[in-house]
Amino acid sequence: MKRVHNFSAGPSMLPLAVLEKAQAELPNYKDSGMSVMELSHRSGLFTEIITDAENLLRELMNIPENYKVLFVQGGASQQFAAVPLNLKKNGKADYVNTGSWSKKAMKEAKKFIEVKEIASSEDENFTYIPKIDANMISSDADYVHITTNNTIEGTAFRAIPDTGDVPLVADMSSNILSEEIDVSKFGVIYAGAQKNIGPAGLTVVIVRDDLIGDASDVCPTMLEYQTHSESGSLYNTPPTYGVYMAKLVFEWVKELGGLKEIQARNEKKAELLYDYVEQSDFYASPVQKESRSIMNIPFIIPGRDLDSDFVKEAQAEGLETLKGHRSVGGMRASIYNAMPVEGVEDLINFMQKFEKQHK
Ligand SMILES: *Cc1c(COP(=O)(O)O)cnc(C)c1O
């Protein structure tokens, strides 16, 4: 069986071991005579799956007792609306603008709440993460919103800003589970599953208890955190197969040694690629050093019109989806948890060969 190295930003590659486990269990899950896809979401077997998934995520991320884990649908994009609808009290929120996804979050939130952009890196094409000082935060803001990893631009917060008593809300779609984080610094964490957790269709929300139960009157039932927290994410039919796949991925992460080990692996992969780009006078990184993502790594070939050749020739060698996002150009290697170090080594070998040919 031929598997490529898939550098897609999302949906992205899944660990082969997880796919094989799902394949083995597909037609007859635990002697039920059914696939997980065919199980009632109220059945004992599915209850076990969703309970295990939650407990594993709690264990991996060290999620404190006073936080709920919700498995919902609608993607991170739906949380752009759900966050203001659930957290609105004074009617104001602070946003940090670090790229395309932050902008979309702000645009959606403006329909429901007064949005203040307290910092932005748009002046330099989002190639860095702006410094956030406590004094920039509005004391009467209902929350502060950040995008911890900017999937398109390839930047990431290397330190979590201190927002004092104002709840910090984070879109962690492209770096959840990639490194150890202190959940207690956040009011809400949300992430679409299709980068580091599993297939598209599942969204994970981690929310502090005191931020549940005070949603605005117009908040649709399905967007209310309380709806999902009081029903154990079983108010309606959850994306059952997505939850099952997430559970398998969580088990895989745990077997590897948890987030500490995953982080070490991710840092090593990113360092290999950045070091190679750094020492080369053919390739360059558009991102400022102290703001670099370890998940999404854009690189360019300055002064040459070689991007489409690069992408095409790489693809012929089993290195897939390296084209940069249409808004920034160049190339982008997304190296999420499931990407093995060999994938990055093969990419670097190809980059060396391509450089020799075109220099
Ligand atoms: C992929 C992504 C999104 C969009 O997620 P959907 O689940 O497709 O809505 C939002 N924010 C970030 C940071 C992303 O990487």
Automatic annotation (TrEMBL):
Listed GO biological process terms: L-serine biosynthetic process
Signal peptide: none
InterPro entries named in the record: Aminotrans_V_dom, Aminotrans_V_PyrdxlP_BS, Pser_aminoTfrase, PyrdxlP-dep_Trfase, PyrdxlP-dep_Trfase_major, PyrdxlP-dep_Trfase_small
PTM sites of type N6-(pyridoxal phosphate)lysine: 195
Binding site for pyridoxal 5'-phosphate: 76-77, 101, 151, 171, 194, 236-237
Recorded GO CC terms: cytoplasm
Domain Aminotransferase class V: 5-347
Cofactor note: Binds 1 pyridoxal phosphate per subunit.
Keywords, ordered alphabetically: Amino-acid biosynthesis, Aminotransferase, Cytoplasm, Pyridoxal phosphate, Serine biosynthesis, Transferase
Subunit structure: Homodimer.
Official protein name in the record: Phosphoserine aminotransferase
